[in-house]
Amino acid sequence: MTQTSYDAIVIGVGGMGSAAVYTLAKRGVDVLGLEQYDIPHTRGSSHGETRIFRLTQPEHPSYVPLAQHAHERWRELEAESGADLLTTTGSVHAGPKDGELVADALESVRANEVDHELLTSAELGERFPAFELPEGHRAVYQPDGGFLSCERVITTNVNQAHEHGGVVRARERVRSWEPRESGVTVRTDRNTYEADNLVITAGAWAANQLDVLQNHLSPQRRVMIWLQPEEPANFSPDRFPVFSVDVPEGNFYGFPTAERPGFKFGRSPDVTEVVDPNDWQDEPTMQDEHLLRQLPDGHFAGDPGRDRTMGMATCLVTTSTDGHFYLDTHPEYPHVSFAAGFTGHGFKFVSAIGDVLADFVTEGDTELPIDVHRLDGRL
User: Fold this and answer.
1) pTM for this one?
2) pLDDT tens per residue across all 379 residues of the chain
């Protein structure tokens, strides 16, 4: 007979949800994770082989302590599971010397006394020969950055949750949930469950599950591309850091080569493309490819693979109203907690978010530094 009563239910088992299920199970909580697609899958925000990890946080200096906690937890998860999850390459934030990206990056590392270097574009090219950024650009280099193997993170979290007694059910879509005085009822297309606590980590579908965030989340389509460079050694993890660059053609971010052929990068669009997560263009187009090729056409040395596409992929990025993600308990139902609206820079925090959400369930609150992410005064 299928178990239908739990201490906690987690809706959505992507990056954030898988960490929540794992951490709750490790703490001895009887937990059920529900995922509408496969584990892992390619319909959301936690696929595409790699995601950036960085201690430099131009979004806000208060993000840095949470990233530092996440770094510790990534290494602990690797030690516990035996999986290789975080590859250190260093990170680069580069742009015009008077631009916001460099200024905000510097503010975040200086405010938190994080080790870093400030390089000219020429110095960056000497250190990492693949870069050829415009004269007058500056770069903030931080040695602890790198990339996470995102699908492997999810499978590792779920496997470790199973080791600790957690239950995960894929291809089971949540139709609704209802609060009770001291718990919740969750109805899916397969069953009805009861739990003392509910955790919502539904990504682009979070607004469908949380009325309080319904007008404050915007799912957007983003595209990634892999190009095969003429000199692949210059794009290997030991010679090429993860990066975010502000150049005349736009704001781009990228990675060294990993398991898939080619180095990977994407573009933060000037005009956002808000989509319905249940009905969107998930196949990359030639127009997508044309926009992305504007980066290698002028900012990498040699031939970075302008006409050698190895692959493309789309994903969903869910933005918040003010750019800071939401991480809190429900204002009316304290036994309901959520993490949503990560605005394209959330995966690095997955290991820390698992701790925060588990704290909400087991302690009622958390001591981790999340003040800028709470709801107070933001909606």
Assistant:
1) 0.97
2) 789 999 999 999 999 999 999 999 999 999 999 999 999 999 999 999 999 999 999 999 999 999 999 999 999 999 999 999 999 999 999 999 999 999 999 999 999 999 999 999 999 999 999 999 999 999 999 999 999 999 999 999 999 999 999 999 999 999 999 998 889 999 999 999 999 999 999 999 999 999 999 999 999 999 999 999 999 999 999 999 999 999 998 999 999 999 899 999 999 887 777 999 999 999 999 999 998 988 887 899 888 877 899 999 999 999 999 999 999 999 999 999 999 999 999 999 999 999 999 999 999 999 999 999 999 988 8
The first and second tokens of residue 221, run together, are 């389509």
Is residue 246 within 8 Å of 95, Cβ to Cβ? yes
CB atoms within 10 A of CB 117: 15
Burial class (CB in 10 A: 0-12, 13-18, 19+), 300: buried
Cα–Cα distance measured from residue 8 to residue 30, given in angstroms and rounded to the nearest whole number? 6
